[in-house]
């Protein structure tokens, strides 16, 4: 046994590591013993790779004074910073780009674990044993009982070592030296935290003599005959048993029988077993056939539409170390929000996640652990994917993904990686994958000529470009023109947004060539933090970082759905329910690709002024995919007096399913009955001046300024025109995709520092008129703003007229009034709810009677920004006031001003003040997706134009 001291050359070696076994399928045995080596390990972190020699790997080494950490885990997320800190960059390498070299400062974690074999472990001369690492970032060297067994890179890929000959019944010493930086880091430049550590399971597997090695389940489905053909190729001969199908065949032999196919909507799995002389391995078989045909991706003979999301593995405490419950939670949340697809951006996930995708039904694009995005900074010079020296490493990564994951029916695409430019290495990967697995297609976004791929894939293409592609007007190479199109990333869910996804979905459904997309991304990668709530880039003092660009998910770090997920659920709902209320029918359309509607129950309800007065079940035929039916509604229930009425029809699960309970809502539609009666206030009262005060009906004003001070005893502060909103992440924008940075334009114009000039306070018999001009210093643009107040004695009406002056070249952030109330807690409104809605994120907002509280109206975007506006509001009650709008308005209410909201960088910066600030908006600018993508479509922009809108105030008794 020899110990080298400082030989760390392997760290910068571009070739795959040494000592590991060839990759193979990842499976759990029915009868072979295994030992999890997860748990508490000893850890010593050194600042460089060679600071310590490797004597710690020797038996008998005393690590008693080392720290203890949990494996799986990242050491920088344990020990309160004592072991180093996380670093977040989007695409910049946090070290000098000089491949394959890495910095001398290379945090290195020596991990040590002593273990005994369990009592039921077979005798050491029976069979062998394999030590498996499911994920280590970024490079590890391993010793067992003092013997160096090898080293490896490829952080999110499994590596196995044969160790049977080294095991002892007790006192086994497993030593793992993990380096944060390695040549592999150049291939792992994904937009995420850099988090070193043994972050997935470590397992010792007994391998019985005659046991299973590797196997490949081929399970095709012939949609014409309704038969499936199963063939399990196995390195070790044996038999394949599928009791439910009466299958008992030899490995390698095909067998064809009638089956129910697997799809994401109908994830039928057949339990089977692979039996060799020494082992039984459970199989979960899904029969499906994926082909490219007529320029379309077809599964089981039908084109599919991806309603997907990009999923990074994330947990706010444990980073990329996820437990099974968290993985299941992700899948259940996806299913419950109508998603049908996941792209495993940008690396193969923990294998258990794929089991869940098979079981619950999600189409998967399995992506290789490969991104070299930082080379874009040097025009892709020296890009490893175009350098033959790196090709073996790329092929190793491709093989480790495909071999590990090949038995999952949910995977329909292999993806070569993300944002790695173009090059021979990618072509080599694609060629190898195509030859190894003909039953799936190959994806890669970075080559718009589609040289190596079976689909034309893009990210963040605008609506106009998507439409052009749909119409096949986009040109491109001959090969590309014959391919289907997907957006592997769109709808950048950073902060408030993404806007415009309903408009995308229309295009996806309209053009056959467009087969859907994947929202960027699933979860905000916020890190739980004692002072900041959730930390993002820069919060750990990183030298280079990309701020909160790492928080761009449809769910918050604690997995609470953000409004973006509610919006997406509605936009992609698999049943369309439409009607106009006039002809007494509702049109129901099945938008599933495979399932009929028999699993759903339909319920109608009838609302009078937002309140449901009657409901009942609606019988809808079990329509097949693509079919529609016009279904008769009952006679509208009678009601008293004039009222706004409407129908709501909901599709819910008729029975419990694996992912949802009976009654879970899948889809809904609303359509109007009788239209709203707009408020009318007869101006029967007149303004009366008395010294410093003007009174009008229930209201009092400051006579000098014309400012409202109270309504019926409720004091009101600072009511005036408001055009500013705390810029959202999308308002901040980026210049590299859309070029739209509203916040810059708005601030340059001065919309955040508008001055209000008082021109006149005029009293007539029935009206108090206050004329003003609202404009920023240094600019000629302005808004002539007139407030007209009238009253019928008990109610107070305000009509605001706004006339833009000068040349306005940018849309307004918002247009409305704001006011402060001394107290407000409960909020009730008739309008859109329950969640927030902006012009291009309002699909999920449904008209009804809603209640909430000021605190609950806030959406906790990690970086504070405009949020929480409720749309289409007829009236709202809060703080002792009832406010009715003509026309409908949007409102928000918070315990801080919009200026304070804007100044905050974390939620913990927001401190409740004494006043509740309420915005009553006539309009807001759309949200868009320009934090990484296109801005709001013109029809969702709030152009500065003459406007008039009214509110009727009364005290809420
Ligand atoms: C894409 C990239 C993602 C992420 C996203 C922005 O270009 O593939 O990893 O960086 O932009 O959040």
From TrEMBL:
SUPFAM superfamilies in UniProt: (Trans)glycosidases, beta-Galactosidase/glucuronidase domain, Galactose mutarotase-like, Galactose-binding domain-like
Family annotation (SMART domains): Bgal_small_N (SM01038)
Q: What is the E.C. number? A: 3.2.1.23
The enzyme's main class, written as a single word, is hydrolase
Beta galactosidase small chain/ domain boundaries: 695-954
| Catalytic activity entry | Hydrolysis of terminal non-reducing beta-D-galactose residues in beta-D-galactosides
The UniProt entry's GO CC annotations, sorted and at most eight, read: beta-galactosidase complex
What are the GO BP annotations of this UniProt entry? lactose catabolic process
Query: In the record, what terms sit under GO molecular function?
Result: beta-galactosidase activity; carbohydrate binding
Q: Which UniProt keywords apply?
A: Glycosidase, Hydrolase
**Which PROSITE patterns does this one have?**
GLYCOSYL_HYDROL_F2_1, GLYCOSYL_HYDROL_F2_2
Where is the chain membrane-spanning?
none
Task: Return the similarity comment.
Answer: Belongs to the glycosyl hydrolase 2 family.
Give the protein name, as stated in the record: Beta-galactosidase
Give the organism's phylogenetic lineage: Bacteria, Bacillati, Actinomycetota, Actinomycetes, Kitasatosporales
């Amino acid at each position: 046994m020899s110990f080298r001291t400082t030989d760390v050359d392997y760290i910068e070696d571009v070739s795959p590591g040494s000592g590991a076994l060839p990759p193979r399928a990842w499976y759990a045995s029915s009868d072979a013993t295994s030992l999890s080596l997860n748990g508490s390990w000893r850890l010593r972190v050194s600042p460089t790779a060679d600071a310590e020699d490797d004597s710690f790997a020797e038996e008998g080494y005393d690590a008693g004074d080392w720290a203890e950490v949990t494996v799986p885990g990242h050491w920088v997320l344990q020990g309160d910073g004592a072991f180093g800190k996380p670093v977040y960059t989007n695409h910049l390498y946090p070290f000098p780009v000089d491949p394959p070299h890495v910095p001398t400062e290379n945090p290195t974690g020596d991990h040590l674990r002593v273990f005994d074999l369990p009592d039921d472990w077979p005798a050491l001369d029976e069979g062998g044993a394999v030590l498996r690492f499911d994920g280590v970032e970024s490079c590890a060297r391993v010793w067992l009982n003092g013997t160096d067994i090898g080293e490896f890179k490829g952080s999110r890929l499994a590596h196995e070592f044969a160790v049977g000959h080294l095991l002892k019944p007790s006192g086994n010493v497993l030593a793992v030296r993990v380096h944060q930086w390695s040549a592999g880091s150049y291939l792992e430049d994904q937009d995420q935290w850099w988090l070193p550590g043994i972050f997935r399971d470590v397992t010792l597997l007994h391998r019985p003599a005659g046991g299973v090695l590797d196997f490949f389940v081929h399970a095709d489905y012939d949609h014409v005959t309704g038969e499936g053909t199963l063939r399990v190729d196995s390195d070790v001969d044996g038999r394949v048993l599928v009791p439910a199908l009466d299958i008992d065949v030899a490995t390698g032999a095909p067998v064809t029988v009638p089956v129910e196919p697997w799809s994401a909507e109908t994830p039928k799995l057949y339990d089977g077993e692979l039996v060799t002389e020494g082992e039984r391995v459970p199989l979960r078989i899904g029969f499906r056939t994926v082909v490219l045909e007529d320029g379309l991706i077809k599964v089981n003979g039908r084109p599919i539409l991806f309603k997907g999301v990009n999923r990074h593995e994330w947990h706010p405490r444990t980073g990329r170390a996820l437990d099974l419950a968290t993985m299941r939670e992700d899948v259940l949340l996806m299913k419950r929000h109508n998603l049908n697809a996941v792209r495993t951006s940008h690396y193969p996930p923990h294998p258990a996640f794929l089991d869940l995708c098979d079981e619950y039904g999600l189409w998967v694009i399995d992506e290789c652990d490969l991104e070299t995005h930082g080379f874009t900074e040097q025009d892709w010079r020296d890009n490893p994917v175009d350098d033959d020296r790196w090709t073996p490493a790329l092929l190793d990564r491709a093989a480790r993904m495909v071999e590990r994951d090949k038995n999952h029916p949910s995977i329909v695409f292999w993806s070569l990686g993300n944002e790695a430019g173009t090059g021979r290495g990618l072509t080599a990967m694609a060629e190898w994958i195509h030859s190894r697995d003909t039953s799936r297609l190959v994806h890669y976004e970075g080559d718009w000529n589609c040289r190596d791929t079976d689909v034309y894939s893009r990210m963040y293409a605008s609506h106009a470009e998507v439409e052009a592609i749909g119409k096949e007007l986009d040109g491109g190479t001959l090969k590309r023109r014959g391919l289907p199109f997907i957006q592997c990333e769109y709808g950048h869910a950073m902060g408030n947004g993404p806007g415009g996804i309903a408009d995308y979905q229309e295009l996806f459904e309209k053009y056959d060539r467009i087969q859907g997309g994947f929202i960027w991304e699933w979860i905000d990668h916020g890190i739980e933090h004692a002072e900041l709530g959730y930390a993002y880039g820069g919060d750990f003092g990183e030298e280079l970082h990309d701020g909160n660009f790492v928080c761009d998910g449809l769910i918050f770090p604690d997995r609470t759905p953000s409004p973006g997920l509610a919006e997406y659920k509605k936009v992609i709902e698999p049943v369309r329910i439409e009607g106009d209320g006039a002809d007494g029918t509702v049109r129901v359309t099945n938008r599933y690709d495979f399932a009929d509607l028999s699993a759903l129950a339909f319920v109608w309800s009838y609302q009078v002024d937002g309140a449901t007065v009657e409901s009942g079940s609606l019988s809808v035929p079990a329509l097949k995919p693509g079919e529609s039916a016009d279904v008769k509604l009952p006679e509208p229930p009678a009601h008293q007096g004039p009222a706004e009425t409407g129908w709501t029809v909901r599709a819910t699960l008729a029975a419990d399913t694996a992912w949802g309970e009976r009654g879970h809502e899948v889809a809904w539609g609303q359509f109007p009955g009788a239209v709203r009666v707009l408020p009318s206030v007869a101006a029967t009262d007149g303004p009366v001046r008395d010294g410093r005060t003007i009174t009008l009906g229930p209201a009092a004003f400051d006579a000098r300024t014309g400012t409202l001070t109270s309504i019926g005893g409720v004091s009101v502060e600072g009511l005036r025109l408001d055009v500013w909103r705390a810029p959202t992440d999308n308002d901040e924008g980026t210049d590299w995709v859309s070029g739209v940075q509203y916040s810059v334009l708005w601030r340059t114009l001065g919309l955040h520092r508008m001055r209000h000039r008082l021109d006149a306070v005029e009293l007539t018999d029935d009206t108090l008129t206050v004329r003003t001009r609202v404009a920023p210093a240094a600019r000629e643009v302005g808004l002539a703003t007139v407030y007209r107040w009238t009253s019928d004695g008990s109610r107070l009406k305000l009509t605001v007229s706004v006339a833009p002056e000068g040349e306005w070249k940018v849309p307004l952030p918002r247009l409305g009034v704001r006011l402060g109330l001394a107290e407000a807690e409960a909020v009730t409104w008739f309008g859109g709810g329950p969640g927030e809605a902006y012009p291009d994120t309002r699909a999920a907002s449904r008209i009804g009677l809603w209640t909430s509280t000021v605190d609950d109206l806030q959406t906790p975007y990690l970086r504070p920004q405009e949020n929480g506006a409720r749309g289409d509001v007829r009236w709202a009650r809060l703080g002792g006031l009832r406010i009715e709008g003509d026309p409908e308005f949007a409102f928000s209410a918070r315990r801080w001003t919009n200026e304070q909201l804007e100044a905050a960088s974390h939620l913990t910066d927001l401190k409740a003040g004494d006043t509740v600030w309420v915005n009553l908006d006539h309009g807001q600018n759309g949200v868009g997706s320009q934090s990484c993508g296109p801005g709001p479509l013109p029809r969702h922009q709030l152009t500065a134009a003459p406007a008039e809108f009214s509110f009727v105030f009364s005290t809420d008794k």
